[in-house]
## 1
Amino acid sequence: MESKNKIALVTGGSRGLGKNMALSLAKDGVDVMLTYNNNKEEADKTVAEIRSLGQKAQAFQLNTGDVKSFDAFINQITTYLQKEYGKPNFDFLINNAGVALYAPIPDTTEEQFDNIINIHFKGVFFLTQKALPLINDGGRIINISSGLARFSYPGSSVYGATKGAMDVMTRYMARELGQRKISVNIVAPGAIETDFGHGRVRDDKELNAQLSAATALGRVGVADDIGGIVAFMCSERARWINGQRIEASGGMNL
């Protein structure tokens, strides 16, 4: 039976910011497909939580840095969408999945460099490319950047530069996809207390205090500060925002 609900795909939607994005979308009446890399248990919990809100949800395994796996993944979600909704289309792609890298330039290995590029840039580009035939005209793509693309903290050179590349790519996507009325924006969180990067911001009290002092609102962010912004960007209220970088950092390093 065909649903009137909009449908979102959230990569890395099983925990942290991605989970909050998925739940925020569900609270807005959006059905959710989410991906996880390793932790199926957490993904299943998030799916159950979304379903308890009255929305459809399904989790799929995906390593967003492995471009060769994308065709099989697209086939999986196409089959699911066709079965569940009667057509293989969805409305919102949220390119959220990611990993951290804290490594000074002299110590960064080629393997670390390639991993960050593959997950945060190459993978986002080609997953978006593969998903485009499934995204409804008038849909939305939300990419995820970082405050580290605007200001610099030692050890985050590769991660921050890759997010800077996504800032630029977002404008190109918005320009090229405008003919299909698909808007593309990028949301840039500042320092956030989640398990990202092994919970570094959350658990290192000295770092937490330092980042809080650099933030106009006097604290680091939490997941609840970000998910609602992504949901808003997928709503009718945000329909005229396109090609923009929206930083949500509480005013870090102003």
## 2
Amino acid sequence: MTAAARAMRLISSARALLIDSEDRVLMMKLAGRRIVDPAARLRPTFWVTPGGSLEAGESFEDGLRRELREETGLEVTDVGRHVWISDKELDIGGERVLTRAHVYALRVSAFEPVVRQMTPEEAESFRGFRWWSLDDIAASRETFIPRDLAGLLHPLLTGDWPEVPIQIVP
């Protein structure tokens, strides 16, 4: 981490790789910010794992349980294995911040996600859910975060779990 990154405000988040019995991963489709034309109706879209920012005083595990309940309707007690850490510098409202996501992998039965609660900003960017297979992710022209999702997932799906969480590129 650079000295500049250490001086930035840190926003911590927790995300979940929800993996079903067919080795599919639940992803959320979101629309990005209106970068070029704020009035534009078309915005770039991308797929991310469920999860989000922690609330004040919340642990990564508690935050993940809350985010899963709010975003997908899934209630979990065990958040699975902490497999990845992802740091990214962003500009939020003119402020440079460092976001740090802790990503947990959890085996679940396939289910139909139901959004229970989203902030207005989240609801405005939300486009839907999909269960993705590794082959579908690898063959897709869609944008995934992390960018090398297929490459990062493959070892997990074959049982090659990291002993400690690995640093990944978002």
## 3
Amino acid sequence: MENKKIALVTGGSRGLGRDMAISLARKGNNVIITYASNQTEADVTLKAVEAAGGKCAAIQLDLKDLTKLDAFVTVLAKTLKEKFDTEKFDYLINNAGMGATVPFEQVTENIFDEFLNVHYKGVYFITQKTLPLMNNNGGIVNISSGTTRFANPGYSVYASMKGAVEVLTKYMAKELGVKGIRANIVAPGPIETDFNNAAIRNNAQMKAALGNMSPLGRIGQADDIGSVVAFLCSEDAKWINGQRIEVSGGINV
């Protein structure tokens, strides 16, 4: 009988989430991903995970609308049973996100509320509501940002929500430790993906400037992050708990 651990990666259809899913599969895990709307991209991830040796399922979930969260948990439970012949999963990676560069004076309540739902309230309640489906001795990895440590103009809303998640992660570590569940933060620095309308990828000047800020002389790639998440979701990291691990190549060190 197959005895692989199962990881749930939110926002796993592209970018960092896709690489996390593939890295987790390479480490010997099965994977469930969520996607907001792009099923085609989710299918690409699904095939890549299977090619890396893991079973994979994809479930639609848009964290901008938290009224759908209970229905998602129901589908998750059904997917675990039907696809993986089990009732529980082991690792939750809260990766789903949205990006926008908005100067402080131009932030609207609508923008604020969307970021709140996706980056903080969604993380809070998807974790709470899926906990009954999580095995003891598993792990939670919340994705934050280097911008909680250094200020990047236009990121006041995004970074504030990530800062809240960093505090929340400490409470998860403290309160869920009784179940053997570890909770940690991975905080990427600038990464060349399609995040925030591919702001870095599409701007050679910005890419060069950010690369020059790192002692390693480049900006990050998706596979710089996925491997760290996969490490945290393994026995190798069994004594790492309540920690913020910045994976940024030493930018603004």
## 4
Amino acid sequence: MSEVPWHLSCVRCGETYAGLELRYRCDCSGTLDVIHDLSQCELTREILDARLSSKDSLDRSGVWRFRELILPLGDEKLQEIAAARGEGSTNLYNASEIGREVGVEDLWLKHEGENPTGSFKDRGMTVGITVAKLLEMSAVACASTGNTSASMASYAAISGMDGLIFIPEGKIAFGKLSQALAYGAKTIQIEGDFDDAMALVQDVCDSEGIYLLNSINPFRIEGQKAIGMEIMQDLDWQVPDWIVLPGGNLGNNTAIAKGLLELHELGIIDQLPRIAVVQAAGANPLYTAWSEGTDIEPVKAETIATAIKIGNPVSWRKSMRGITALDGIVTEVTDDQIMDAKAIVDAAGIGAEPASCATVAGIRRLVQEGVIDPQQRVVGMLTGNLLKDPDIVVNYHMGELDGIESQRANAPISAPADIDEIRRIIRQ
């Protein structure tokens, strides 16, 4: 399949390449965008809303419902080749109770932890694996702190592909590692951090003819665009004032900004929200660069929020471009603030992994600083399921996390098997 209705374009120098050329960077080393010809796109609100009541597998997917803006191959071809397993269509929770805790009256939380493998990564992976199938690849690979590996392993398995995963040794939550192992991917623990694993996997893919599925792959970004598109549809196309999300490798905010700009160009939404990216203070290269007006300088990442524990994000240039286009901002929060926010989200019955809750901690900070008005409508993104980091959850409530003050601990209570003692505990 040599001709497709999109092309690749370098973010740095503007050089263009064929839509299915097997590359992840420009010759100048810049990252690539997928560029669609929107003049040929006839997608409307009415078409998208009609798909919500359809039983067609593409229509019911929270990614492929927006297929004209994701991978426009035509319905017949996509029915044949799309690697889908019901991703997307996640809940947008009215989180007014949490909002009162952090100072926002109209707070909504989009829970991407409700995707098939428990994180937003499934949205990008369904597209990335589909392109791998188009390219007739037999093996795919990624470097991962957890969620990417779980998602890639699953989508590779349902597509009959070999999966190869590089993880930092001893630095991946068991809730995530267990998924990669269970889905059958070959998992290699290497000495070093995520950035070391990322450098290695790129070399291996180049030398061994394996398809790379980290967020440097531009088609991953195309799938993740659907998060913002679905938020707009969830809100009946009424654009919120803010979308707030965590920042690690920075593919998500890049994707959401790209998708919203495309919806706006098509007239599907009539204005754009502002965007806020929240980094952990121990893994904050984007925050530092944004604050100082410089390029990214890699840092040695250290944070309890493993999903955003990334010190050299590959998508930083795209990320900054999207933040600027949406009049956005970057902030940072401490691990203590992340875990305090996590306890609030969890206690509301929603629950999320630590990195997700950087979103809520960031909203609180931005309200306190006067950046977000308490009267504005804010949509926060929760990126992963509560059970991704179960050890952290239990140790927080037991007061056993080093360096973390468990301000909202809910430790189990030991008691004898005596009804009077149980009654005393209940009535306390």
